[in-house]
Amino acid sequence: MLGGSDFRTLLTSHINLKKTLCDVILMVQERKIPAHRVVLAAASHFFNLMFTTNMLESKSFEVELKDAEPDIIEQLVEFAYTARISVNSNNVQSLLDAANQYQIEPVKKMCVDFLKEQVDASNCLGEAKVDQSLPECGMLFTV
90 with 115, same domain? Predict the structure, then answer.
């Protein structure tokens, strides 16, 4: 019987299978990102609703994600398979925006935790700009 980490390892070791056995292609600008609906739906409330309701995308092989950054979507898809993502000062804003839009709660939490670690008196006004994109981040700036 496979446990949580064993299953994640199995998925990670067979990640290339998603290129041949995928059942959805995410179209992000000019990039095609292959995936499995069930994996995306398990990681994201947004994709769960998209694929399990009568939305047009539930029957489409290709799903266009407008106004998304291809590199960020690839990281989120990889997260759906591995539960791992690298949050840093270069990608935190984009990841937070995308995780909020696609309702991927663990990534939102990782971004908020990263921002909490970065906030101090010398940079809190700059970080307040990031806060405007996600109201619940306001807790970062309360004393």
Answer: yes
More confident residue, 127 or 7: 7
CB 72 within 8 A of CB 91: yes
Write the CB contacts of 40 (distance below 8 Å, at least 6 apart in sequence). 24, 47, 51, 77, 80
Contacts of 27 (CB under 8 A, 6+ apart): 33, 62, 63, 64, 65
Say if CB 55 and CB 96 are below 8 A apart. no
* Structural domain that includes position 143: 85-143
Mean pLDDT of the chain: 82
Residue 80 and residue 91 share a domain: no
Q: Looking at 14-23, 53-62, 75-84, 94-103, which range is the least confident one?
A: 14-23
Neighbouring-strand partners of residue 48: none
Q: Residue 26: phi, psi to the nearest 5? A: -85, 120
At 109, list the tokens: 């939490």
- Full-model pTM: 0.76
